[in-house]
Amino acid sequence: MAPHIAVVGAGLIGRAWAIVFARAGHAIRLYDPSQSALENAQAAIQQSLADLVAADLLASATETFSHIQFDDCLAKALEGARYVQECGPEQLDVKRDLYQKMEALVAPETILASSTSGISASHFSDHLAHPERCLVAHPVNPPYLIPLVEVVPTPMTSAQAVEMTMKLQRDIGQQPVLVREEIQGFVLNRLQGALLNEAMRLLHDGVISAVDLDKTVKHGLGLRWSFMGPLETIDLNAPGGICDYAERYGPLYQDIDRQRSDTAPWYPELLTTIEGELRQQVAASDLAARQQWRDQSLMALISHQRTRR
Amino acid sequence: MAPHIAVVGAGLIGRAWAIVFARAGHAIRLYDPSQSALENAQAAIQQSLADLVAADLLASATETFSHIQFDDCLAKALEGARYVQECGPEQLDVKRDLYQKMEALVAPETILASSTSGISASHFSDHLAHPERCLVAHPVNPPYLIPLVEVVPTPMTSAQAVEMTMKLQRDIGQQPVLVREEIQGFVLNRLQGALLNEAMRLLHDGVISAVDLDKTVKHGLGLRWSFMGPLETIDLNAPGGICDYAERYGPLYQDIDRQRSDTAPWYPELLTTIEGELRQQVAASDLAARQQWRDQSLMALISHQRTRR
């Protein structure tokens, strides 16, 4: 049997990973213990593929779908797999059991990559015979539209497993980055959290409205960040590059850092106020439609970016 | 004489403001005491207008250019102006002198708006007879591509001056936001600083490379932020909206906030290392070309966003 890629768990993330691997031409086995979860996944994947075709981001839904096999038997899904993308529940005990079961079904060198956003892989791989092939490959939802993947090895992970995972992700068109430590929140959520914490402080202090705060990013900061990132942005924003920039603006940013209060103000009353303001922009009954708009906007942006490459 | 808009200072920001107002059909007088600065500004504006036309973001360069009059006499530039956009040097004493001179030349109700990114307007308007028409209207460079404008009143600014400035900015197609306090860095740079400070800490701790950090934003976080902003992003990322999201992820972000070290690590050696890594991506000799790429990318993104509206 030719080596395939197994995706374990057919929830939101598992389905999306199946699409990512399948559209790159890989044979996929998508496993879930629940038959009804598999049926839901089939329908959801077909809908997503149709959306991708409609947005000119995929040539053929039928061909992509044909690469995915749906399995409710873990042994069958994993037999002969060369890479497993685990998308199980975010519970440590569940993952520990799952990894032990998975290890018994695959070759010693098969990579076991977790989609977890919050649990260090060392916590659910330290009891394995071969923990050196375990790591995190954390996607952003949905990975078939947002290409970033955070690859986070444990202290036990081999350099070879890291390199094979990075290469596989690159080969299928994702953008893997190497997070060298099992740090809480990895990198993406730490950056997001830093900005959100400052946003909450500004909202709590009444400096700006929630709607204007979003405008500050979407009509200001976020435009260049969507194609350059924050370091290249400041590197190009001073005649002498990033060191020159740091001389000009570093003191300001360090002042701001010192002005933070110690507690991040995610106060329930503040959040209720923010929510009230957001609901005036998009009513609760329109949220599902707004999510569709978001996905359409994201597809249009990705399609636009492709034309720029 | 029909009321016009005066732009004071023909540097990078002044030229860009002249384009923003002129393309909206306003008569502009662009003042600079230096004749050679005005000549440079003429050439630079013509180049920018040609770029905008080439990117399908402007119908006629000639027509837009015809709205701009270049003046080396402050009295002539300001006579009869209904709004002044000040783009002078970022030095408090220079600005204090300039505002006193400008006040003597305009009507009491003429708005005097400063492009300053770093000085509170109260510091250079408290000595005026009519400080109630002074405020900050801080653009992002270049404002003809990035529409955000931070409008920051002083404690002395009248509600009417704020409303008139917000309305004028909206009318010319910018996206003004109201910053209710004269807070250091206003809102955009505080948000940028919060993310950059966390980025510097992660780089200092060796968690990620500079290139991968930029990827984390440009292939991950920055995509949705370029059309939604951070609050709408999390509002749509949990079934029950932003309060639901805060229950799930608020604790993580507050943990991250508590993990910050007290000093923002803009260490010179760290910056040199980052710069070295960035220069491997784009050599120093290619920086000017990369800046052109950035501006072309920004124009293409804005053009793409227009087709989505």
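qc> Chain A is about 55% helix and 15% strand.
qc> done
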